[in-house]
């Protein structure tokens, strides 16, 4: 009887101890619930040191390996086989392993610290730093059958030093998402965020970069060329906004829930994927095209310098760029796409909602630019200060 | 001799584990805190600038103290809430002890995030509390004001940590020799007196352990403040995350993490001064 009691207590203690461990691990999984442990990467040990860029031309004539595995460092959600049907048909014996990202910075940090991936998928504000630090290698676009259909303006953003390092794949807006049924006046510009009518019902995105960009736009400044005085002006303007801000959102599911519950009426820097999702759920939302312009993000693939599967990686990029994959991205996820040939496969209603049917949509969108270390630091510090102002 | 080698064999796995997963990363962080940059040439420059920048940055320090204050509040309230539970379990629950213990632990079987989301459901503007207040006419308009605040962070974290604070208190109460209480009664102590003079002092090691069980993890918290803290609820952990993930300034992030560690150490030092350290170790 006594021993039974003790074993019960020991058991409960063990459960608590293990929960303690998992609770401590929770922050890592918080951002992307689907993220799992990085798959163990076991590669052929030979020929690791030679830079793949020099191997690439030789590999043109050599047959591409049809077995082995390909390691993707990607966002969760993009691992669905619908996105790489073409690759699965071409290389049925290649095993595709996914390791998941929660932030672009993670892509940089992982590759930088030696993680061996064959494709990596951060957004464009991390493209330049990865090229500058020689973490990724140029893409031989002549081997991509779908490259000719890729929007040239978007492709241009992946070009550095005259070489194509990044294959753009997905993009979207960062704009103002509004609960039409709860506000009296629907905002029409970034500057309208400061309207006291929305006090206590505004959500801002938890990113110094995004906060800097939208405030600069509201003030009529060029976000990527601000003087120190203008930086100060931006900080003051944000400090004025903070008392009206209800909360800071950090992930799409977080924001979707905030808006659906009615706690948040006006969400800044919201993604179009949120808009499509909430419309689908029957929430009365509208997505603003602010007079200053919508901000936009662009993400895409590159092949890390230490990849040993250059040709397989190219084939994978081509599969992701294929019209069926791109149309799936727009139809199911509500993201902007880069392959013009895929537009006819997109549900016309979705294309309308995403403004994909607008010829000038790319040139009208203010895409995030590469930022330097000083900007990254100063905007982060500014944001830390604003968030902790009282 | 044989005993000794057996001891070495047994101690090796946890020692290696602690070294690789705890001391080594801490060392890496310490090295990083002296670097001029995360990567590139600056990576190899040794500098004290990060420490200077930290000392000059008032918002970092202000938030560190504020977070320490929040964690302190959480720990103290958790102890106050957990102590009666532990006391009941140890002295009054009798045969139901294990069942009650399990019941207390059951909520922790669900995901941490899920439990935080549950608080959003309860406190949000369409939540349970708002609905009750609305239907009883106490308030006229549903308001999300109950959540998205520093108070919401405190409430949520207390809820999360009470069971963990309860456990060490419970185990220290269990260890109290019941004869001592009898003796106190024989010598004419009223029950409250024997509690204050016997039970409480003897359970202090558990209380101190419980304090740190809640204080240390909540000081570095960044998920709960993100989800329920609102615009003003950021804690120190959020700023550390920003330095690592947004500014890519790992050296600064390391300095900030070490500063947090220093706060914990100082507090631990002060608290263990209250009673002999050996008493704690006996736990």
Structure description:
The complex is a heterodimer of chains A (390) and B (283). By secondary structure, chain A is of the alpha/beta class. Chain A has helices spanning 2-30, 52-61, 85-90, 104-112, 127-132, 152-157, 208-218, 228-241, 252-260, 272-280, 310-321, 323-333, 348-353, 361-364, 373-387; strands spanning 69-75, 95-101, 119-120, 136-137, 159-160, 163-164, 167-179, 202-205, 245-249, 266-271, 285-287, 295-301, 303-304, 336-337, 366-367. In chain A, strand 1, helix 3 (85-90) and strand 2 (95-101) form a beta-alpha-beta unit. The N and C termini of chain A lie far apart (57 Å). Chain B has one domain (60-281): MetI-like fold. Chain B has helices at residues 2-32, 49-56, 58-92, 97-105, 112-123, 128-135, 150-174, 178-186, 191-219, 223-228, 236-245, 250-274, 277-281. Chain B is globular. The chains are: A alpha/beta (390), B mainly alpha (283). At the A-B interface, helix 1, helix 4, strand 9 and helix 15 of A face helix 3, helix 4, helix 5, helix 7 and helix 10 of B.
Pick out its properties.
heterodimer; A: 390 residues; alpha/beta; D-Maltodextrin-Binding Protein, domain 2; 2 domains; eight-stranded mixed beta sheet; three-stranded parallel beta sheet; B: 283 residues; mainly alpha; MetI-like fold
Task: Give a short overview.
The complex is a heterodimer of chains A (390) and B (283). With 390 residues, chain A is an alpha/beta fold.
Which helices and strands occur, and which strands form pairs?
The complex is a heterodimer of chains A (390) and B (283).
Chain A: H1 2-30, H2 52-61, E1 69-75, H3 85-90, E2 95-101, H4 104-112, E3 119-120, H5 127-132, E4 136-137, H6 152-157, E5 159-160, E6 163-164, E7 167-179, E8 202-205, H7 208-218, H8 228-241, E9 245-249, H9 252-260, E10 266-271, H10 272-280, E11 285-287, E12 295-301, E13 303-304, H11 310-321, H12 323-333, E14 336-337, H13 348-353, H14 361-364, E15 366-367, H15 373-387
Parallel strand pairs in A: 1-2, 1-3, 8-9, 8-10, 12-15
Antiparallel strand pairs in A: 4-13, 5-6, 7-10, 7-11, 7-12, 7-14
Helix pairs in contact in A: 7-8, 7-15, 9-10
Chain B: H1 2-32, H2 49-56, H3 58-92, H4 97-105, H5 112-123, H6 128-135, H7 150-174, H8 178-186, H9 191-219, H10 223-228, H11 236-245, H12 250-274, H13 277-281
């Amino acid at each position: 009887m006594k021993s039974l009691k003790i074993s019960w207590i020991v058991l409960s203690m063990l459960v608590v101890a293990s929960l303690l461990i998992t609770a401590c691990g929770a922050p890592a999984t918080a951002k992307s619930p689907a993220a799992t442990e990085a798959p163990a990467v076991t590669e052929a040990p030979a020929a690791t040191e030679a830079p793949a860029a020099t191997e690439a031309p030789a590999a043109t004539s050599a047959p591409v390996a049809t077995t082995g595995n390909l390691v993707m460092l990607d966002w969760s959600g993009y691992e669905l086989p619908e996105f790489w049907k073409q690759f699965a048909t071409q290389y049925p014996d290649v095993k595709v392993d996914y390791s998941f990202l929660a932030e672009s910075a993670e892509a940089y940090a992982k590759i930088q610290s030696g993680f061996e991936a064959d494709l990596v998928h951060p957004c464009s504000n991390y493209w330049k730093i990865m090229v500058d630090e020689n973490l990724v290698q140029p893409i031989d676009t002549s081997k991509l059958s779908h490259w000719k259909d890729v929007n040239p303006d978007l492709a241009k953003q992946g070009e550095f030093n005259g070489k194509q390092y990044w294959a753009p794949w997905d993009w979207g807006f960062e704009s103002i998402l509004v609960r039409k049924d709860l506000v009296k006046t629907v905002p029409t510009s970034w500057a309208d965020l400061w309207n006291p009518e929305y006090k206590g019902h505004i959500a801002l995105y938890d990113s110094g970069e995004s906060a800097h960009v939208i405030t600069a736009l509201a003030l009529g400044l060029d976000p990527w060329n601000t003087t120190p005085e203008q930086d100060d002006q931006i900080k003051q303007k944000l400090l004025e906004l903070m008392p009206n801000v209800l909360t800071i959102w950090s992930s799409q599911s977080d924001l979707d829930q905030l808006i659906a519950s009615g706690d948040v009426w006006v969400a800044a820097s919201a993604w179009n994927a949120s808009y499509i999702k909430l419309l689908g759920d029957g929430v009365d939302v509208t997505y603003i095209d602010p007079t200053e312009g919508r901000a936009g993000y662009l993400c895409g693939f590159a092949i890390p310098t230490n990849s040993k599967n250059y040709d397989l990686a190219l084939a994978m990029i081509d599969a992701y760029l294929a019209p069926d994959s791109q149309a799936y991205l727009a139809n199911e996820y509500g993201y902007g796409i880069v392959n013009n040939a895929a537009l006819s496969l997109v549900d016309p209603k979705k294309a309308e909602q995403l403004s994909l049917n607008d010829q000038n949509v790319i040139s009208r969108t203010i895409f995030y630019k590469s930022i330097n270390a000083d900007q990254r630091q100063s905007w982060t510090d500014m944001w830390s200060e604003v968030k902790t102002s009282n | 001799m044989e005993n000794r080698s057996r001891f070495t064999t047994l101690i090796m796995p946890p020692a290696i584990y602690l070294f690789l997963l705890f001391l080594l990363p801490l060392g890496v962080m310490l090295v990083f805190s002296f670097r001029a940059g995360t990567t590139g040439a600056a990576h190899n420059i040794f500098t004290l600038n990060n420490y200077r920048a930290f000392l000059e940055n008032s918002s970092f320090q202000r938030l560190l103290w504020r977070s320490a204050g929040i964690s302190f509040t959480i720990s103290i309230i958790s102890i106050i809430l957990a102590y009666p539970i532990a006391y009941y379990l140890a002295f009054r629950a009798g045969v139901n002890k294990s069942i009650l213990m399990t019941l207390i632990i059951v909520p922790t079987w669900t995901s941490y995030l899920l439990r935080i989301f549950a608080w959003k459901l309860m406190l949000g503007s369409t939540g349970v509390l708002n609905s009750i207040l609305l239907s009883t006419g106490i308030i006229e308009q549903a308001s999300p004001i109950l959540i998205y605040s520093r108070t919401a962070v405190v409430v949520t974290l207390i809820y999360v940590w009470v069971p963990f604070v309860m456990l060490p208190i419970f185990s220290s109460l269990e260890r109290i020799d019941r004869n001592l209480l009898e003796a106190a009664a024989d010598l004419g102590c009223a029950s409250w007196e024997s509690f204050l003079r016997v039970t409480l002092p003897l359970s202090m090691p558990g209380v101190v352990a419980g304090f740190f069980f809640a204080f240390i993890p909540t000081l570095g918290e960044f998920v709960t403040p993100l989800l329920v803290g609102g615009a003003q609820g950021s804690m120190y952990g959020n700023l550390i995350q920003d330095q690592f993930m947004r500014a890519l300034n790992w050296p600064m992030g390391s300095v900030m993490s070490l500063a947090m560690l220093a706060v914990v150490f100082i507090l631990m030092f002060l608290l263990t001064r209250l009673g002999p350290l050996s008493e704690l170790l006996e736990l």
